[in-house]
Amino acid sequence: xxxxRGAVTLVxxxxxxxxxxxxxxxxxxxxxxxxxxxxxxxxxxxxxxxxTRVIAKRIAFIVAMGHSTDSILAVTFTTKGASELKExxxxxxxxxxxxxxxxxxxxICLKLLRQFAYLLDxxxxxxxxxxxxxxxxxxxxxxLDTIKYADPRTINTYINQISLMKxxxxxxxxxxxxxxxxxxxxFTAHKxxxxxxxxxxxxxxxxxxxxxMDYDDLIINMIRALDIPVVYDYCRDRFKFLLIDESxxxxxxxxxxxxxxSGFNNIFLVGDTxxxxxxxxxxxxxxxxxxxxKYPDAITIKLEQNYRSTKTIVKASNTLIxxxxxxxxxxCFTENSTGERINLHTATNSxxxxxxxxxxxxxxANTGYEYKDIAVLYRVNALGSLxxxxxxxxxxxxxxxxxxxxDTIDLNDSVKYSVDNDNTVKLQTVHSAKGLEYKIVFVxxxxxxTFPCYNIDEKDxxxxxxxxxRLLYVAIxxxxxxxxxxxxxxxxxAGAWRILKPSPFLAEIPHVLLRFV
Length: 517
Hints:
With 517 residues, this protein is an alpha/beta fold. 41% of the residues lie in helices and 15% in strands. The longest helix has 17 residues, at 193-209. It starts with 13 loop residues before the first helix and ends with a strand.
């Protein structure tokens, strides 16, 4: 097999594969690419361990072994990730990459349902997909019919609950029993499960009458379609190789879809329980544990060599995350330099914190760093405005990166993301920084009840703290060279100063790795 257009030419012979695909891979990466391509495999990939390159080379290896590009299904969690993966695969196999079905769960289900939606009750293949704004308009009409009012807060509450139910594969008919088994769910309408079940049911009926699906329906309806023999046979016959990235962030519905589409020992599941940061919207890192239960003969490979960060940063992140109990054990390491100690700054108040960070950014720019090398990360959006103002007052170019740049629900996987190529300091939440890397990272607001943020019932406190710790782990592992951790002794909250204790996570980082500045 040969490919053109400037890509590496692949020929299905062992010598060329060795030279082209396997060079510069460590032993574990090489095993992921080659030895297990016909086995169910769980790849536990730590931050900065080169998993995207491994997935791309595994796809190229499968093609080089003579398998059809049409037999490969590769699923990523974000549109940005899908775009990057496509580019990587194309660099190895050229235009043949266009024949591979690669994308997010939603975009892939959309493409398949364009063939098979007519087999589902109430739909045609020309169905429309409503964005959240249009879905809220449908729900508003439903609420006006049922509870006679539909203010924005109520609409948001119901739309979020319906989405959560779909992600958990709970239908309107099963909702009552779900409420009985989950009395701790924090939603007032749960006191009357029949009410939410009715709203849910009427919303679904209205959408179907209009030949419309919401984003969650794309997953749910593809699962339903796979119960139809012609659809099941088509997918089983076509897709011989399934590759799933960021599996720790999949929900129950997405994992069910994976199970239904796999007919062979062909699943390559990639993920990291230490980077599961979306449990609040239905993500289940337990899917990775369940994978090994369902496929007990699956091979497990750990990618632990970090190519991104300094030894100091890797050691700090390892020590922090080992305080979590619900995880796959792994210990990342790096052959990079030791690097500098981590800078820890305690500011008198939040304004002083912003001043310190911006002054440091000016110093770094004067020593040769570009603004695009620098990111300021925070737990909640509300913390960003002070830093925006301070950067603006010093005329330092900056960009606020919203979470939509890493949105998991973009139906157009060809979108190009160039925002991280402009020469500006990036201000963003930790969630929106997932999958990115910067030479210099400031993690701000490391105070108790800020980071970690405590908006959770006491019975969920332990699990919540583990997710908050994972968030800090993700923040720290975005950094390549210089890491700053900052906190304020007091912060303005609702017009009054509030005294703040340091984040308990700071005590989990060895002091020998810190430099107090």
